[in-house]
Predict the structure.
Amino acid sequence: MDILKYNGIPEAHGISSSDITDFISDLARRELFMHSFILLQDGTVIAEGYWPHFNKDRNHRMYSVSKTFVATAIGALIDEGKISIDDSIMKFFPEYADADELLHLTTIRDLLIMATPHRSTTYSVNAKNWTETFFKTQPHHPSGTLFNYDTSGSYILDVIVQRVSGKPFLEYLKDRMLREIGFTENTDVVKAPEGISWGGSGVLCTTRDLARLAQLYMDKGRFNGKQLLSEEFINAATSKQIDNCYNGWKTNTDGHGYGYQIWRTRDNSYSFLGMGGQLAISIPDKRLILCTNADVQGLPTNYEGVFEALWNFIVTRMSNSPLPECPADYNKLMETLADLKFPIPAGENFSSCEQEVFNRKYIVKDTGISEFSFRRDGNKGIFSYTNRTGSHSYEFGFGEYLNITFPETHYFGDTIGTPLGRGYDALAAAVWVEPRKLMLRTFLTDDYFGNWCGVFAFKGDRVTVGLSKTAEWFLDEYTGFGSGIAADAM
């Protein structure tokens, strides 16, 4: 069984095929690095698209959408009567009985609504026991008071699920409800250093799986005549449980309130939000859901572009009744979905200065890269460089992304803190943004997502280099603002 229905015609659901095409075009205009999207109306998939390197069967890192999975597992345990939302968390951690009184007064609900007693997430990438950091860190204020985004609280929730159910939270959810709604079996979760599933950020599942969970919430926990998760819990989880607008400003996503590891968002919607563009935007008034996966890390507007495109081209234009079918518009939409492309920065694929600056080694100071060179091989380039991990090189496309293996093997694998031992899958492209200025963009597209951008401005024998990265706990070798000189000119 599958909670999703497929092959829906948009017009039958009050949405024009041309409006969905416009929505996709707007994402491209905003230069959002999308990976996939699914648009659902009343449980039917009416549009589904995957950019190169991604597909419907590929597991994708959900980042903080993982928190909603954990909250769902907590709700299931509450439904079973195994825990209470008002239980003190200390009930499940007797080994920390000597913890501060503020922790003894902290409840499961406090963690669900992001109101822990801590000022910030308590663990670090180097911590070996994330549970211990939560109970050994001195609390700052009473829990349940102010909203303060604290992923260590989400982690403690998934530890509670494992201690009570005897299973990692995702396995518990599969047994309890996810298999029943069609969830993919080979889903996985990145583990914390102590070997416990990382519920704050680690779920890997398909875009359709994300849509399945979102649809279960839209259907108030009921599927195929069976109540898999109580309507009472879902109503509470998706409603405002705590104010999160203490700076006075609202965006599409911020300031509308927070439920149980779920964000209240604009116009009576609620959303599962994950770093980089992992989204399940649910609009109950329209029975509409948009799920996306992406890497917009580093983009100042973050998720805003996806929300704006959705409202501008779908929500405000959709009809409450079916529209006449338009085969030409539908065929154009199908062609668009079959030819999705990543946005390339504006620039040229060739510069007359290449003969002067390529095939030269440059020595650089003040960046993570100490020396580099470029060379061209037809329509692709080769970037060779040295950083603190050694000498590396990789290919990139001029004006197009090439699939590559990123040459760092010490980044994490299935457990935080444990090196994977191989390079990450990645995409790399470069353009000349000015006649003597090359921009190289690299997106890592493995189980961990991140990106870095290098800008190389050549002037005579000298080069100015700007390196920036957006990634959680990796790509640190690819930052800095420096200057250099050609080795043959020293």
